[in-house]
């Protein structure tokens, strides 16, 4: 009995020690990422990649989505899912998103000047940006300063934003929309508990989450959900873009069920601007017959 008790205590102690060191690791990693990210943002070491948005019927380029990329000299390359949450928690997100938005809009202006046929750029904005910030003013002055047509810029936001209580966000989105900027609901279908926001918020686009696109080929209920989202979009006069299209079969099914726009590895991965230009000049157009 003594031995059993001893073993249980030992195991308990180990479990606690393991738990603590695990916590410390996570907290420590968070701090390391936060301080490296702070430097990367202030020294403008972040990159922006561009992924084409394609018209399924013609195969034509309809726009690009800007996605942040970060390679730290010591930590290596970190995916946005690792550092965007850290940026949100540490208040770095406003600077990060502003940087990406500025860079993407400048790239758009430069493409326009060079005759590269990109007519629209989408940027991702964290929901935290809409909590009592100056996001409206930042977007307004950016659009004015770079003299871009507001309709050429779309903001991708997640549904969680629509679910936040309070009318501030509602008013903010209305004001932004009144500038003429597009408003897209990213990862649509993953987070909603109510669709009523679609009639209250001035949304222009739904991005069908890739979890519904994955199994379109073999899962009838995913097909039904995708079809429902496409119909919902049509009813509300919203553009619907399918995310994460990786195969020809998925693209074909989406076309059949009335989806007109898509993004995904089947067409192209996100690329740096120069690589995107090569892609566009080369085989960028001929994956759909
Ligand atoms: P998102 O906005 O939904 O972006 C789509 C993600 O799916 C991107 O991941 C993209 O690289 C990836 N993707 C594109 N096509 C495919 C495909 O065919 N298959 C698969 N499996 N994945 C595909 P990424 O770049 O790692 O970004 C992840 C998320 O991080 C984004 O999801 C967005 O929520 C956030 N994010 C990225 N850049 C920014 C930014 O500048 N600001 C903010 N606030 N968030 C950003
Ligand atoms: Mg997005
Ligand atoms: Mg998405
Ligand atoms: Mg996402």
Automatic annotation (TrEMBL):
<feature type="domain" description="EAL">
    <location>
        <begin position="30"/>
        <end position="284"/>
    </location>
</feature>
<protein>
    <recommendedName>
        <fullName>cyclic-guanylate-specific phosphodiesterase</fullName>
    </recommendedName>
</protein>
């Amino acid at each position: 009995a003594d031995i059993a008790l001893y073993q249980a205590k030992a195991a308990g102690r180990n479990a606690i020690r393991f738990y603590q060191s695990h916590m410390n690791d996570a907290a420590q990693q968070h701090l390391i990422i936060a301080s490296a990210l702070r430097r990367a943002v202030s020294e403008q070491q972040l990159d922006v990649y561009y992924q084409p948005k394609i018209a399924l019927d013609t195969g034509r380029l309809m726009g690009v989505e800007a996605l942040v990329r970060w390679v730290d000299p010591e930590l290596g390359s970190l995916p946005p899912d690792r550092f965007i949450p850290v940026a949100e928690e540490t208040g770095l997100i406003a600077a990060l998103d502003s940087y990406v938005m500025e860079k993407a809009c400048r790239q758009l202006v430069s493409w326009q000047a060079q005759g590269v046929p990109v007519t629209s750029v989408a940027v991702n904005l964290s929901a935290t940006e809409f909590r009592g910030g100056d996001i409206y003013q930042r977007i307004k002055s950016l659009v004015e300063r770079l003299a871009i047509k507001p309709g050429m810029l779309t903001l991708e936001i997640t549904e969680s934003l629509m679910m936040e209580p309070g009318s501030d966000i509602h008013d903010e989105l209305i004001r932004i929309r009144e500038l003429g900027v597009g408003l897209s609901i990213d990862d649509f279908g993953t987070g909603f508990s109510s669709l009523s926001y679609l009639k209250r918020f001035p949304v222009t686009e739904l991005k069908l989450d890739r979890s519904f696109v994955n199994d379109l080929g073999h899962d009838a209920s995913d097909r039904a959900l995708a079809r429902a989202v496409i119909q919902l979009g049509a009813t509300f006069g919203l553009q619907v873009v399918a995310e994460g299209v990786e195969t020809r079969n998925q693209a074909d099914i989406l076309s059949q069920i009335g989806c007109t726009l898509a993004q995904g590895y089947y067409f192209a991965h996100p690329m740096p601007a120069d690589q995107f230009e090569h892609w566009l000049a080369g085989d960028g157009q001929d994956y759909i017959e």
